[in-house]
Amino acid sequence: MPSDTPLIEVRNLNLFFGAFHALKDVSLSLHAGELVGLVGDNGAGKTTLIRVLSGLHKPSSGEVYFDGRRVERFHPKLAIEFGMETIQQSVGLCDNLSIARNFYLGREPVKRRFGIPLLDFAKMREASTQVIRSFGLRANVSADDEVEVLSGGERQSIKIGRAVAFRNRVVIMDEPTNHLSVREREHVNDLAKQLRDQGLLVIYITHDIFQVHKLADRVIIMENGTKITDVRKHEMTAEALEQVIRDGGRVVEAEKARAIA
Ligand SMILES: Nc1ncnc2c1ncn2[C@@H]1O[C@H](COP(=O)(O)OP(=O)(O)OP(=O)(O)O)[C@@H](O)[C@H]1O
Ligand SMILES: [Mg+2]
Questions:
Q1: What's the predicted TM-score (pTM) here?
Q2: Ligand 2: distance of its center to the CA of 118 in Å?
Q3: How confident is the model over 35-78, as pLDDT tens digits?
Q4: Which pLDDT does position 85 carry in this prediction?
Q5: Ligand showing the shortest atom-to-Cα distance for residue 16
Q6: Cα angle vertex 21, ends 15, 22, to 5°?
Q7: Which long-range contacts (CB under 8 A, 24 or more apart) does 131-138 make?
Q8: Sign of the C-alpha dihedral, residues 244, 248, 253, 254?
Q9: What is the DSSP letter of 64?
Q10: Is 46 in the pocket of ligand 1 (CB under 6 A)?
Q11: CATH node for 8-93+167-260
Q12: Cα–Cα distance between 233 and 60 in angstroms, integer?
């Protein structure tokens, strides 16, 4: 069950890029143990919102709270400090390094031999092998193999496993199933649900309203920098949500009233 204090709370957030108003008075509360779908057309502001939460953009006005505490300073390390990992389709892994090395990219464990710091390969291999097995990678894949040998879905598994192993609390998946086969897509979506079931907050960004309606507990729709819909899944059908994206926010209130009646 989602907890009471929101893990992330955004209040009246505005962001301008020069004269362009990219985020318009956005407010939302997101809880641990929730799988939230963030949907909207190209240019709606989804990635920009995530970039603010990750500390990459400073809001023009409005507030962000992590765990009830106000974020005072937006800086690129904010996401790591708070335990937030963003998973994207095309970036995040180095093809020519082993799975084990990729697993620890940027946080390699070090051991000392005669005072000299050395990468702790045994530790990297052990932890990443565990993830490989628990996430159902092919049995003949080993942690020493280069990432090149992995399929798209398996690559996503490595990134998701990494997010879990480093005790993140928030995992943001930005179009994580682009270019994946149907089976791989299901696998990645299952992992998203597993993360939610382990108590993480999962923010799942996609254009596919039908996919996200099946998967998410809640759906947030953005349009032109504004949040136009924020509903629990059972409050609206996927068809109605699709209609919202087509017509803008106008039908939302009517639909909600009908669902409750
Ligand atoms: N650094 C920037 N400088 C100026 N404008 C920007 C910048 N980043 C994004 N924008 C603009 O802000 C708007 C929102 O972009 P954003 O990338 O957040 O959309 P999105 O919802 O993620 O779209 P998509 O589904 O295509 O990924 C777009 O009009 C985009 O051109
Ligand atoms: Mg985007």
A1: 0.83
A2: 39
A3: 999 999 889 999 999 999 999 999 999 999 999 999 999 998 89
A4: 86
A5: 1
A6: 65
A7: 131/103, 131/157, 131/158, 131/161, 131/162, 131/164, 131/165, 132/99, 132/157, 132/158, 132/161, 134/161, 135/160, 135/161, 135/191, 136/187
A8: negative
A9: E
A10: yes
A11: 3.40.50.300
A12: 31
Tell me the percentage of the chain whose pLDDT exceeds 70. 92
Residue identified by tokens 């023009």 is 60
Of ligand 1's listed atoms, the one at least distance from the Cα of 46 is: 21
Domain coordinates in residue numbering, the chain: 8-93+167-260
For a substitution probing ligand 1, which of 14, 17, 88, 178 has the most ligand atoms within 8 Å of its CB?
Answer: 17
Whole-angstrom distance, CA of residue 110 vs CA of residue 169:
24
Mean of the per-residue pLDDT values for the chain? 86
Q: Could you report how far apart the first and last alpha carbons of the chain are, in Å?
A: 25
Question: What is the DSSP code (8-state) at residue 7?
Answer: S
Å from CA of 86 to ligand 2 middle: 12
- One-letter amino acid at 247 equals D
Distance of alpha carbon 261 from its chain centroid, rounded? 34
- pLDDT of res. 183: 81
